[in-house]
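call fold target=Efflux transporter outer membrane subunit
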Amino acid sequence: MRLLRGGAAAVLVAALSAGGCTGLNPNVASPQIAVPDAYKGKSARPSQHPAGSPYDFAAFRSKKLIDLIAAGRGFNLDIAAAIARVEQAETQVRVASQALIPTIQADGSGTRSFSHATGRAVRGDTVVGQLGASYELDFWGKNRSGVASAMASQAAADYAAATVAITTDATIATTYFDAIATQKQIDIAKANLAIAQKTLDAIVARNKAGTTSGLDVAQQETLVANVKVTIPPLQRQLEQYKHALAVLVGRAPEFFSWRADDLYAIAVPQIPAGLPSELLCRRPDIADAEAQLASQRFLVSKARAAMFPSIQLTGAGGFQSVALASLFQPQSTFYNAAAGLTQPITNLVELQATLDQNRAVYTELLATYKKTIIAAFQDVEDALVAYRKTAEQERLQREALQAARRAYEISQAQLQGGIIDITTLLSIQQTLFSAENSLALVRQARLESAVSLYRALGGGWIKPEGVTLAEVPSLIDVKRATP
């Protein structure tokens, strides 16, 4: 590296005449990655649902779910922590910006002396008041790179907070669907228990009449007991889901009130997939990775600029007088100005190592950024497959349930007529109970697949007009909803 030479004044003139060097090119490659033109599972159906969480969830037609999402936006502690990290990043921008502003200090002093050289006491007063300023001329762009890096880090914190908000939305919705599906399973188990108990009573009556055996009674009693034993674990799960919902909305479980929809009363949204370009404009985790990459690029630039000379400008001016009364007289004024140049020599190895380290970190973040994009497409494809296949599975499961109900109704009539035995009825009952429970689980999976797609697409199912990078949901809305 060439060592600059010359007096401080010459350096100052050259710096001022040049107007500063850009210094913001870190000499690292811009990220490039190939993306597909369309999703494999893209839906061509248009959607009329508005975007913008939590109102996207209006597509489920559940006011209780929307209320939970809104409460989570306002009181979830993970979101509150994310907002605090945004504020921390904002302060770092202000700290970094101070390097672009001259440092000014005010000093004042006064001294008093006595002399007896003439045989009598003579008092002398000296008063000084001055302002001093120092400024590092950002000729190589080191300080500007630091500010740009801090601003990119602030943007990354913003996007990270939006990611937390989207994740919280999805977690609340998924936990709510888990809870109401569990409640539906409890209701099904209780209804099936009533059916099994009614059948047991009929078999006991027939046993007393001598038309059935004790084995028939024991078999039906076993079925009743097996249905009963499924209820307590479901009730335990329901309570745990309620506790989880309480924490997600920032409340202690003791203060959380439970209101739930019926599982089948919740609508499944008709969702278009959109295009990959829209995904890149929506997902805040991708924007977060890109902002971190940009921040590191400027750190590389800052480390590179640190290897060049540092130019310091200093100046001081004020008043000095031997008498306070004449402190601000013209003859009491003084000033001085200087320019200095500091060239790194002994620590060049350390500076080069710092530059190499920052470049290596950039390479790591570049790989992470590319992986984030690829993983985003995987998330969408997986969610689309789940959304499509669970819809097909629910349709088939409803057909299976209808067949099981018809078989059960026929078996009851045939049992009364003595055409079949109790063993056949037990088998048909168990098939019916299993089909009802399976339908509830499939419905739950279908609702949750819609939530997964909401999350995979960056916080919504469509991209509204005029929405820019990672603004769905808007972090401003998150901040406004946070107490």
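return ok
The chain has one domain: 36-100+139-209+236-308+350-481. The chain has a mean pLDDT of 75.
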